[in-house]
Design goal:
Organism: Penicillium alfredii
Order of helices and strands: HHEEHEEEEHHEEHHEHEEEHEEEH
Strand order of the largest sheet: 5-4-3-6-2-1-7-8
Shape: globular
Number of helices: 10
Structural class: alpha+beta
Bound molecules: adenosine-5'-diphosphate, magnesium ion
Family: Belongs to the DNA mismatch repair MutL/HexB family.
Strand content: 25-35%
Distance between the termini: 54 Å
CATH superfamily of the largest domain: Histidine kinase-like ATPase, C-terminal domain
Number of domains: 2
Largest sheet: 8 strands, mixed
CATH architecture of the largest domain: 2-Layer Sandwich
Number of strands: 15
Protein name: DNA mismatch repair protein PMS1
Radius of gyration: 21 Å
Length: 342
């Protein structure tokens, strides 16, 4: 029978993107400047994320995969102003319930020794072993959804599409993360690891975009730098007042493709959206951009890399357990203002 833990975990980790998101965000939270993601069979057999971050303190080994354990919060009050991606302590515990999960980790002073930690389904620490390793953490997820057979079959059926989605998400992390080297590999069947894409530890998002989409893409892009001003909604003002803060306006930074009139596609029709540099889907905003391009009679759908910097009171990330949807309190006003500015 399926346990409550498995069912709840299936709501935190809904697909390959959730796995990649949680592991990559943990690596970024750990201060990594190099992140390598490895897939086997497009992620069906293995998704592994290796970082050169701070590693995990031995005192924490027994806790990290327990439900609701997080090292990132000192008090509940901090929740609203947290800068790290994680804070719920649900990801690792969920991965244990849904797959075979192990970690290899070393803090600087332990190198060249590292510790391999195998976790049980419940999240309890199982076997531990000393192995050779570098500073940082490697988290390995084998056989995702093996304990939710219907979900597993669904994933196997749609693996091509799911793998495409997870690559797009990794593109977004790689482009937005300045100073972090990304490398993504995949091994399909008996073939060796193939590097799918990589970035250098670039200083600018522009250089990252060139690494991911090719230098040619850059010449088709124009910078996006807008200040969007509008009357904040009651919800936003209430949240700000509760936190005793001033509201500021929204700043939009990024790159969009130069409108190409008539036929001809010059840029990949990729659209990446971020709120405070956190990748997220913003379908209403995407629609607004596409409508503006259409109104100019532009045939192709634009390349968009758009990072909205805004007050943390202006949105809610906690609307879904997987934290991927963001609720903007002022979506309508923002879209109006965006259309005008574009
Ligand atoms: P959260 O990120 O919400 O704290 P997770 O379940 O994702 O919860 O991770 C649990 C804990 O495991 C983290 O709080 C952190 O202490 C530790 N951890 C996970 N991944 C890493 C990593 N790559 N490097 C260092 N510590 C990590
Ligand atoms: Mg996390």
């Amino acid at each position: 029978a399926r346990s409550v833990h498995q069912i709840q975990s299936g709501q935190v980790i809904v697909d390959l993107c959730s796995v990649a998101k949680e592991l990559v965000e943990n690596s970024l939270d750990a201060g990594a400047t190099s992140i390598e993601v490895r897939f086997k069979n497009n992620g069906l057999d293995l998704i592994e994320v290796q970082d050169n971050g701070g590693g995990i303190a031995p005192d924490n080994y027994a806790n990290i995969a327990l439900k609701h354990y997080t090292s990132k919060l000192s008090s509940f009050d901090d929740l609203s102003r947290l800068n790290t991606f994680g804070f719920r302590g649900e990801a690792l515990s969920s991965l244990c319930a849904l797959a075979d999960f192990h970690i290899v980790t070393a803090q600087a002073q332990q190198v060249p020794r590292a510790n391999r930690l195998d976790f049980e389904q419940s999240g309890k620490l199982g076997k531990t072993q000393i192995v050779a390793g570098q500073k940082g953490t490697t988290a390995s997820v084998e056989g995702i959804f093996k304990r939710l057979p219907v979900r597993r079959r669904e994933l196997e059926k749609n693996i091509k599409r799911e793998y495409g989605k997870v690559l797009n998400l990794l593109h977004a992390y790689a482009c937005i993360s300045s100073g972090v080297r990304f490398s993504v590999r995949n091994a399909v069947g008996k073939t060796r690891n193939v590097v799918v894409f990589s970035t250098n530890a670039n200083r600018t998002t522009k250089e990252n975009i060139a690494n991911v989409y090719g230098a040619k893409t850059l010449s088709a892009l124009i910078p996006l730098d807008l200040e969007l001003e509008f009357e904040p909604s009651a919800a936003t003002r209430r949240a700000a007042a509760t936190n005793g803060e001033q509201l500021n306006h929204i700043q939009l930074r990024g790159h969009i493709s130069r409108p190409v009139f008539g036929e001809g596609r010059q840029t990949p029709d990729r659209q990446m959206f971020f709120v405070n540099s956190r990748p997220c889907g913003l379908p209403q905003i995407a629609k607004a951009f596409n409508e503006v391009y259409k109104s100019f009679n532009v045939s192709q759908s634009p390349f968009i890399f758009a990072d909205f910097q805004m007050d943390t009171n202006a949105y809610d990330v906690n609307v879904s357990p997987d934290k991927r949807s963001i609720l903007l309190h002022d979506a309508a006003a923002l879209i109006e203002s965006l259309k005008t500015s574009l």
